[in-house]
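Example (one chain per record):
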Amino acid sequence: MQVLVADSGAIGADSLSAELHRHGFSTALCGTGAEALERYPKFDFFLIDLALPDIDGLEVCRLLRAASDIPIIAFTDPGTDLDRILCLQAGCDDCMAKPFGFRELLARIEAVLRRSGSRSAARLLSEPIVIGSLCIDPDTREVRINGRLINLTRIEYCLLHQLASHPQTVFSRAQLMADVWGYQYDGRPLSAKASRTIDTHVSALRKKLGDPSWIVTLRGIGFRMGHG
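Predicted structure:
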């Protein structure tokens, strides 16, 4: 799915784009409202930070909604309830106050896609992930190995799904805490408690999957999906 991100903050926009890419989205960035209005027809989803340097973000949303049914999520500054109301009135499908956790954004994107009835959404949400004998069904949240149902907790499922969605990617503990647990990463090393939380869930997953090689540990780096 093609996502256009309108954000004049280069560092934050690059980080968001990288996270979206890791979750299977194709992304493009633009730093002005004028560029967004020119480029949006080629995209399936639009994310906009209202603080654009040329055109008021709310006006961009109004113009887009008048011309298109593209799903829109807007980002507002914290503590501005009025902005969030105005976003919805301008035609946005959802809005989020900054800063936000990426996992929450991902959930909101999926919710907007479901409500919009997008065919891209159906593919995104329902396509099973198959790795060898392992099958993960996002629709039912069922995990099976050789057809045998594996009972996982919500967090265990989210952790496995995150790793399996990007089997060649090595996830640091900080990335997993942000993506699975929704913690806001501030660049500081994770606490010992947070690291133990991840290790405990990885250990539980390995036990339930019946083979520790399903999740590979790269010492001092993080984890990636294995092949059982």
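Caption: The longest strand covers residues 2-6.
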